[in-house]
Amino acid sequence: MNALLWLITTIIQLYIYVLVASAVLSWLVAFNVVNVRNPIVSQIGEFLYRVTEPALRPIRNLLPNLGGVDISPIILILLLLFVQKLITDLYIQLAF
Prior knowledge:
Distance between the termini: 13 Å
Shape: elongated
Radius of gyration: 16 Å
Order of helices and strands: HHH
Number of strands: 0
Oligomer: single chain
Number of helices: 3
Helix content: over 70%
Number of domains: 1
């Protein structure tokens, strides 16, 4: 059971890193720091979009328009941290 808990928390942490990378890349594209015509940047951006968009879309549908500010990654990260803490606390309660 300990290995399963480790695997779940590691997957959650990796997904949080992917969310942060996606947000940073979107800022870099918005401020013209990186060129999306570059094939490597385009492939990385497409991968990050395909991995994060299914989880972010329902949150974006629930949020009101904030004038171009997208806080859905922050909300998803907070939800993932809550789930991670909930799983660890439940495991500790069940184990002891």
